[in-house]
Write a structure and sequence with these properties.
It is an enzyme of class 2 (transferase). Pfam families: Aminotran_5. InterPro entries: Aminotrans_V_dom (IPR000192), Pser_aminoTfrase (IPR022278), PyrdxlP-dep_Trfase (IPR015424), PyrdxlP-dep_Trfase_major (IPR015421), PyrdxlP-dep_Trfase_small (IPR015422). Residues 8-295 form the Aminotransferase class V domain. It is a single chain. The protein is α/β, with parallel strands linked by helices. It is built from eleven helices and 15 strands. It folds into two domains: 2-8 and 253-352, Aspartate Aminotransferase, domain 1 (Alpha-Beta Complex); 15-250, Type I PLP-dependent aspartate aminotransferase-like (Major domain) (Aspartate Aminotransferase, domain 2, 3-Layer(aba) Sandwich), CATH 3.40.640. A hairpin with an 8-residue loop joins strand 14 and strand 15. Helix 1 crosses helix 8 (238-250) and helix 2 crosses helix 8. It is globular and about 60 Å long. The structure holds pyridoxal-5'-phosphate.
Length: 353
Amino acid sequence: MLTFYPGPSKVYPEVRDYMAMAYDEGILSIPHRSDRFVQLSRNVVGLLRKKLNIPQDYYIFFVSSATECWEIIAQSLTRKKSYHLYNGAFGEKWLQYVRKIRPEAKGFKFGVNDEIPVKDLDADADTELVCITQNETANGTQIKETTILNLFNRYRDALVAVDATSSMAGISLKYIKADIWYASVQKCFGLPAGLGIMVCSPRTIFRAKEINERGHYNSLVTLYEKMLNFQTTNTPNVLNIYLMQQVMEQRAPIKTIDHDIVKRSQDLYEFFDLFTAFTPLVTNPEVRSNTVITLQGSEKLVDEIKRNALRHEIILGNGYGNWAKNTFRIANFPAISDDEFKILKHFFLSNYE
Ligand SMILES: *Cc1c(COP(=O)(O)O)cnc(C)c1O
């Protein structure tokens, strides 16, 4: 079976051996306050910095998921109000989660083919945090680096938080252009689900200390205090942290991976232009995602394509949210090989051209 599902997605094939290694090395039973854990954790933080180009002065935390980050950020970095710019289901869900914690959170919805109109935004003066989804997995759009920079410059007093769940470790991100970046590992990291990574700027930690919210096991100040010694507040997913170490050691630097992913996405968009019965959902190339490609067709055809693909041992991603029935999605994640994409293209050429 080949899977192009955009999360949980294909894991690196080496993960099979790494899991056996973790067992053999006894890593699965180490206490999370032990020197061995601290060593592992410190090593992984170093590898993430090196391989993903995360600035030296940014803090890295192990959490359990992107969803958890939605809560941590609202709890620990806002007193009242965040401002959410979204165009799809994940960005919208983030706002919904936050409203349970901070009911005054505000949302702004833009279209799938639109760039965020930074100049025309109407954030309230007391906005503490601006939230964006760099790569909207639900519809295959992404927010350009320059847009993030413009937001960061326009809202200097607010923190900028970026959901990069389906782009971190897949494309090169300019971490210094925002304050908080986070991802779950079951997307571009090519690892099994159950671990999240949160990256924070120095002023994020400053804000967390100022607010000093300590009401939750995952309050950011507590995460920060534990991480001073490369520890976590709760017993973390040690197996996944170990797998991340093994995978990150073997991985090319993000610049190289970014280059390959962007090139392959351009190739895929060109390829899918050959077809007329289904077309890319996102028509504006400026906002098309490099890591999640969404194709739109009639409900009937989309259903048939997915079933037919399964008969050919190919799993395509279902549509999501508003686009659940009339789109399907293809992950362009680093763990998926070029050969697998050849098979995918062959499937489409021989069945739908
Ligand atoms: C997958 C995804 C999430 C949720 O990840 P979990 O690991 O389920 O918390 C959040 N945001 C985006 C953009 C995603 O793609």
